Amino acid sequence: MMRHVIPSVIVAMSFTMVAGCVTSIEEPTDEASQGVVQCEDNPPLVTRTQGFWQNHSCVVKGDATGVPLVPIALGASVSLDKPSAVYAYLDAPTQGNKQLILGHQLVASKLNAKAFGIGNVEFADYNADGVLETVNQLLDIADGLYDAGSSTDRVKMATILDKLNNTGTEEELYFDPTCKSAPVLPPPACE
Ligand SMILES: [Ca+2]
Predict the structure, then answer these.
(1) Number of domains within the chain
(2) pTM score over 0.85
(3) 63 to 14, 55, 185: CA distances (angstroms)
(4) Span of the secretion signal (predicted)?
(5) Among 3, 49, 63, 96, which residue's beta carbon has the most beta carbons within 10 A?
(6) Ligand 1 mean position to 157 CA, how many Å?
(7) Which domain holds residue 61?
(8) Which runs of consecutive H residues, i.e. helices, occur in the chain?
């Protein structure tokens, strides 16, 4: 009896192992051959500052990633449609204008979210309810404050977005910021 049972168990096990191996080997091969890049649930928090975005209009235009990063909306009524508009907006002196102080950081944060797919990254607990807001949630709140927010709330949000924009500056870029190399598509965002 044992002589019959053991071989069949071994045969069953080796089929399972082969099936497991085939599955794990073929998936990445298929993705690589199709050029499909999987989204990451926890992508690295890559960011660049206002200064970077002001000085890399070619990236804003889409020459580095193949995807234009404009238009960038601020609240419900302002839209920066061209790289030159982004440059001019970031170049305007704030002179203590809280809406503009927030707007500068908001533009940079939205460019970071678009370029680096960091919208779903949890970053800061703006409303102090013990739960971190994601970058996208913070951007939504910031849009509302841009349209109609107190000076205090605008400065509070600007400070958070400033921190965001400075947090990932040491992370490597996946594209050539001089736009001299072939464009590299941005990583897909996870739903
Ligand atoms: Ca919260």
Answers:
(1) 2
(2) no
(3) 51, 14, 10
(4) 1-19
(5) 63
(6) 13
(7) 50-167
(8) 2-34, 50-55, 57-61, 83-91, 98-116, 135-147, 151-167
